[in-house]
What we know:
three-stranded mixed sheet; alpha/beta; 11 helices
Amino acid sequence: MRYGFVGLGQIGGPMAGRLAGPDLIVYDVRAEAMAPLAERGAVAAGSLADVAQASIVSLMVRDDAQVNEVAAAIVPAARPGTIVAVHSTIRAETAVKLAEAAQPYGIEVVDAPVSGGFMGAAAGTLAVMVGASEAAFARVEKAFGAWAGLVLHMGPVGAGTRAKLARNLLHFASFAAAAEAQRLAEAAGIPLGALGRIVRHSDAVTGGPGALMIRDTTSPLPPGDPLREIMAHVFALGDKDLSFALELAGDLGVDTPLARHAHRRLAADLGLEEPS
């Protein structure tokens, strides 16, 4: 099986590097990005149409416009049965529209955005959220495993992107929470570098906020659910600790809107009561 890869940037380059060899066809607008892979046996394509000769073609380009542009060149040139996998983070509907446009050509589009950044790409430990048919997922799962540590089927085309957007909501919203915590710590005279080390160490042990993502629904937990006792314990700790943090913030004159919101929502967010 030949594998095609388009987009050899900070993440795409290491991903493709895990596949380097004579069965890999690569393309990038920068010839210097293709050179290291060509030295390891990969074929440096002269055009996107050349990459379309592969059985699976991965796209790791910048945005929706580039994804659409590359797909428009590859799909008509590819053989029926080819799979085009989009790893870029795009709008939720883009992959669905691409799949519909590719269907008359016998080409299957899957959306398979990745999480783990440059570090995960370099280590071959990325997480992949795949939106695809069952048959397409069966074909790409092993291939993606060459550069990923976790490959999960999230549902039909489009589900991978929707999962990535939800995952990144947590990622970037947590930046705001981290900044709020730093403002409180700074006002309290705490060295921020040391606090950062504590957070990274403890989250690596506990799993951080992802440790609570263990339910199949966000509906309130029914009476008798074994998770109620666990979540009630979490609530007791969180309610106490957030109360103390808000008290400290008030004493120091630090505005903490995210902490106030989290305090109000905590019981509902843990499934212990109906959201208000």
